[in-house]
Amino acid sequence: MLLPDAAPDDRIYLTSAQAGEVAGVSAAAVRRWEQLGYLASITEPPERKLYEYDAVKKAEKMARDAAIRTSGTETRARRRAA
C-alpha cells in the first residue's frame, strides 16, 4: 500500500479503509477499535474520520493481544480472525 503524504505536523493520517489495509483488517474492524477505545480519530471536513498511522499500529497490537487473552493462544486467535 502506498501511504499518503505526511501532514504538516509530520504525521500520516489514514481513512478507515486505508487503516484497515495497513492493519490487515476491514474498515469496519477499524471503526470497532474506535468504539472499543483502542483508537482515536480526528474529523476532517466534510465529516471524514482520519486515523493516525502510528495509532493504527498500536490499536492493531491491542486488538491482537485482547484476542490472545480471550482465546487462550495466538494460533487460535489467528484462526478466529481468518
Structure description:
With 82 residues, this protein is α+β, with helices and mostly antiparallel strands. The protein has one domain (13-81): Multidrug-efflux Transporter Regulator, Chain: A, Domain 2, CATH 1.10.1660.10. 55% of the residues lie in helices and 12% in strands. It has helices at 16-23, 27-36, 53-71, 74-81; strands at residues 13-14, 42-44, 48-52. Strands 1-3-2 form a 3-stranded antiparallel β-sheet. A hairpin with a 3-residue loop joins strand 2 (42-44) and strand 3. Helix 1 (16-23) packs across helix 2 (27-36), helix 1 (16-23) packs across helix 3 and helix 3 crosses helix 4 (74-81).
Q: What is the number of strand segments?
A: 3
Shape by Cα distribution: elongated
- Sketch the major β-sheet: 3 strands, antiparallel
Helix-residue proportion: 40-55%
Quickly describe the structure.
With 82 residues, the protein is an alpha+beta fold.
Notable traits:
alpha+beta; Multidrug-efflux Transporter Regulator, Chain: A, Domain 2; three-stranded antiparallel β-sheet; 3 strands; elongated
Layout of helices and strands, plus pairs?
Layout: E1 13-14, H1 16-23, H2 27-36, E2 42-44, E3 48-52, H3 53-71, H4 74-81
Antiparallel strand pairs: 1-3, 2-3
Helix pairs in contact: 1-2, 1-3, 3-4
